[in-house]
Amino acid sequence: MYFCEYLKKIKFNRVALYVLFILLAMNLACSQKTTTRHDSIKKSPSSPDKTPSSSLFKPLNKKKKLGTDSEKFIVLGDELFLKGDFDSASIKYNLALKANPSSVDACIRLGDIYLRKGEYKKSGEFFKKAIDIEPENKFARFGYADILLEMGEKEDSEWQLRQVISFDPKFAQAYTSLGDIYLDSGKQNKAGEMFRKSLEIMPDQNFPDTYIGMGELNLARLKYQEALESFNTAKKKDPYDIDGYLGAARALTALKRYEDAKRNYKKALEIFPDHREACEMLVEFYKDRGMHDKAKKLRDKLPVPDLQP
């Protein structure tokens, strides 16, 4: 978890991460059968223990009889997604889309993964394809709203979010994203109202977005310790969403806890090494600390910028 000048410094792929907590419950329900298999999987030292979450799709039930190759590939992709292996998951989702070019499920999942990576052009293409196939799909519109917001198209993003709410007034994450828009527009009180409404609808949110939004609101109000607490909660909700680490790094920098800030920047880049904006933030951090050699070395490795859809 699918912004303008202010939010670009703080977060990037704010996809709200909302419905995939169902996957976590499903994973726990199957834990007796899968523990041995999961234990045999080698994880990199940087891989968090907790699984990622997403608000952009509901998992296919792997226990039900799957009638198509597309569905089978999606189930395999979902299992890889839960392990944080996004590259392998995207291969399965692409196979699902090849088997069924009208698969909204595959489009939304691919949009989610590319949004996490900061590849907004590719992400937007998949969300738009999903909307073309199924115009009233709230997850597709919600993901596309995130892309529009990343690109600074606030009015279009808000329109998409209002559409989502018209489909489902209890879609908590849509209110979080509206809060993001208000925060970016300098309307801090209205942003706070939207974040609180999101938590009222779903008090035990298992996705990080609302907490990231609250962290950003506290940063804007110069409440750095409160901001840090919100970002740390976001990291616990989804250790694979780099926005929590990047927000925490900014709060820690403001608190003059520079080593802790650097660790959070590096953790974000361990998860997505080619995330350009995260690299740029660390470059600026090094420059501000007088570490010009490190800044230059990292700047020379910056990924090619993604193009607007």
Mind sketching the topology for me?
Elements: H1 5-8, H2 21-29, H3 31-39, H4 69-82, H5 86-99, H6 104-117, H7 120-133, H8 138-150, H9 154-167, H10 172-184, H11 188-201, H12 209-220, H13 224-237, H14 242-254, H15 258-271, H16 276-288, H17 292-299
Helix pairs in contact: 4-5, 5-6, 6-7, 6-8, 7-8, 8-9, 9-10, 10-11, 10-12, 11-12, 12-13, 12-14, 13-14, 14-15, 15-16, 16-17
Task: List the defining traits of the structure above.
mainly alpha; Serine Threonine Protein Phosphatase 5, Tetratricopeptide repeat; single chain; about 300 residues; about 65% helix
What would you say this structure looks like, in words?
The chain is 67% helix and 0% strand. The longest helix has 14 residues, at 69-82. The protein has 17 helices and no strands. The chain has a single domain (5-33, 49-239), classed as Alpha Horseshoe (Serine Threonine Protein Phosphatase 5, Tetratricopeptide repeat). Helix 4 (69-82) packs antiparallel against helix 5. With 309 residues, it is mainly α. Residues 1-49 have low confidence and may be disordered. The chain has helices spanning 5-8, 21-29, 31-39, 69-82, 86-99, 104-117, 120-133, 138-150, 154-167, 172-184, 188-201, 209-220, 224-237, 242-254, 258-271, 276-288, 292-299.
